[in-house]
Amino acid sequence: MGPVSAANQATDTRTLIIESAYACFRKQGLQKTTIVDIAKAANVSRSTVYEYFTDKAAILEASAEHASEQFYREMSKAMSQGETLEEKLSQAAVFVSQARRAIAAEKYFDEDAVSLLLTKDAGVLLRECVDFLAPHLSAAKITGEVRKDLDVAAAGEWFARILFSLFSTPSSSLNLDDPEVVAEFVRAHVVRGFASERPRPRRGG
């Protein structure tokens, strides 16, 4: 077996352990799942699990990362339906606002993965979302969709916080189950705010 094959096998084994752990977490819960359970589910020895992960916390962290990658992969698919930044961010908002209901129904993501994702520290989740949004905002500066002096990191964090709120907080005035309501909420307030500075009022006469 050459070095490339060995590396591929190691990657496959690590992925198998992560996916098996995720299956155990779904079935038994995060607290009750043990290393032995994960090893049995992966059909590997406990020592093999320890070759890749120091403890259950490390497996949990890797599983949360796996869920995160899956989440952003699906959000990218949703955003690809739009051509402009406004359309892309509107689609991202619709995706997130419907995550708990529509995602599970479409079977490409589920509540357990969301719960696993949320085991991450809130600051880590925010940074990941900002990093995900940055290329889209930077590209929009080049195309002129947003102003040239837009602070990409700050704008990304602002919109990431909006997405977090859409995910977790119901509205008393908006029907967040309606994709068009969510999309218009973003169109009206987000990209147009990124596009140009408000004229400053003149001082004095």
TrEMBL record:
<dbReference type="GO" id="GO:0003700">
    <property type="term" value="F:DNA-binding transcription factor activity"/>
</dbReference>
<dbReference type="InterPro" id="IPR050109">
    <property type="entry name" value="HTH-type_TetR-like_transc_reg"/>
</dbReference>
<feature type="DNA-binding region" description="H-T-H motif">
    <location>
        <begin position="34"/>
        <end position="53"/>
    </location>
</feature>
<dbReference type="Pfam" id="PF00440">
    <property type="entry name" value="TetR_N"/>
</dbReference>
<dbReference type="GO" id="GO:0000976">
    <property type="term" value="F:transcription cis-regulatory region binding"/>
</dbReference>
<protein>
    <recommendedName>
        <fullName>HTH tetR-type domain-containing protein</fullName>
    </recommendedName>
</protein>
<dbReference type="InterPro" id="IPR009057">
    <property type="entry name" value="Homeodomain-like_sf"/>
</dbReference>
<feature type="domain" description="HTH tetR-type">
    <location>
        <begin position="11"/>
        <end position="71"/>
    </location>
</feature>
<keyword id="KW-0238">DNA-binding</keyword>
<dbReference type="InterPro" id="IPR001647">
    <property type="entry name" value="HTH_TetR"/>
</dbReference>
